[in-house]
Amino acid sequence: MAYTLPNLPYAANALEPHIDTMTMEIHQGRHHKAYVDNLNKALEGQAALASKPIEQLLREINQVPEAIKQAVINNGGGHANHSMFWEIMGPKAGGDPSGPLADDIKATFTDFATFRTQVKDAGVKRFGSGWSWLVLADGKLKIVSSANQDSPYMTGQAPIMGVDVWEHAYYLKYQNKRPDYLDAWWNVVNWTAVGERYAKAKAGKL
Ligand code: MN3
Question: Which domain holds residue 121?
């Protein structure tokens, strides 16, 4: 079974003015689509691998034959990362999280402001293309960054929340000002969705 490109769960202009319409259209319709297409191409003739949920395919990346492994890391990672990214953003979002996620962020990072600074910092310091992540690793919340489309699933971590710092995610509106994009990004975070991912991850179901 082939992997499919998910639709945005809101209109392409729904995240204005923080993320512009054209960026959303190109990002989902071309970049994410290319990851899905290239993943399916890499897995042609590999029915057993291609039938796995994307998260499982990445967790079990060492079962992928060497000849197609890097293509699966890049494009499978790209597919999983972007599917999460659309889901954890939304219109009329932002603000602060609540519930168990908020409690555990405070317990782990002192307070919400410190947490935001560390997520931004991980994104600003990621040289070239990649992601800044909040993951659940060995039962603990942790902020990490990854290069390219490398997925936290590949190292046994559960991605609770991630922000794309590839230039294609912000360049049309923010040009070289990645820190400004990362500041604005908090206005579109759908904390309900992030909290749901956290609950799933704690239950071992993400
Ligand atoms: Mn991207």
Answer: 19-206
